[in-house]
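User: I'm curious what two different proteins look like when written out as structure tokens. Can you demonstrate?

Assistant: Sure. I'll show them one after the other, since each token string lines up with its own sequence. Here's the first protein:
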Amino acid sequence: MPVIVLCSTKGGVGKSTTALLLAQVYAEAGSQVTLIDADPNQPLATWASRFTKSVPERLEIIGGVTEETVVEVIDDAAERKPFVIVDLEGSANVTASYAISRADLVLIPMRGKQLDVDQAARVVSLIERESKVFRRQIPYRVMFSMIGMLQSREQKHIRATLDGKGIPVLDTALFERAAFSAIFQIGGTIFDLTAEDVSNPKAAQENATAVAQSVIAALNEETTR
């Protein structure tokens, strides 16, 4: 079963938000999902404990994961659930290395700023090192997350640079929407939100679903290579 790992060495790029949205979309579609919170700040485990009654039945959230337990937790979840999603701390540490070694796909979120590109490059280097250690090519995708609807000149330049270096980029970007932060404030999933909660929740639902579908497409692309 696919293990999707979210990794970034920079904070504020939407890593935990992306992990939670993917888990919610797959659960909404009928899949059983395990979401592993390996971030010491425990943003996802906190969300689950704070809003226990509104966590989807198909979504299991495991917190308190450390470098000593992360491999065992991932392997166990992968045997039980169709989807395993791992949210890592914002640093290239031992836990990140162990989790990446188990990944079927690593997602590297970035906001489309040059500083984010520099940090994303560090994660790519880490993935390449782990690929050599484990003697298998670990697939990854850089993804634009929490960006504006209109593509800036800087984002266009960055995308061209990534393409020129042969760095694969996820086809769909995650836009910055009030709905994505609202689920951390009021609980539930993006599919529970109404127009009374946030502006245009349907657009947020469609965007998150499109990103989740792009992730599936990337997984399928890698398995056919």
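Here's a second, unrelated protein for contrast:
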Amino acid sequence: MKNVKDQVYAALLTVTENVSDTYPKDWANFPTIQYVEENNSVWERTDNAEQKAKVSYKIDIWHNQSTSDTALAVDVAVSALGLVRTYCGDAPDPSGLKHKVMRYEGIIDMSSDIVYWN
């Protein structure tokens, strides 16, 4: 298993400073981004050694206005890591805030740290 969570966090910080891997606590500064690693598992194993790992991330964006510009910036930042967007959609939010959910996946070559979509 390789941890790419720090790289995802750093990429999201290029979009906004209000980024967390827990439920957002600061609702005064928008946009707010939460990211969660949903999967980090063996994708390919040879001779009892992990050769490739699959990772997937869920990224939630909240804003008191439109989430569109932030979503575009998130897509540029996260795609630059080699992760591929597999979903993007608006989510209903009872608070009245705009809420967008994005999902990304990638395959990590364990010997080189290269992330790519297979």
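A detail about the second structure: Residues 68-79 form the longest helix (12 residues).
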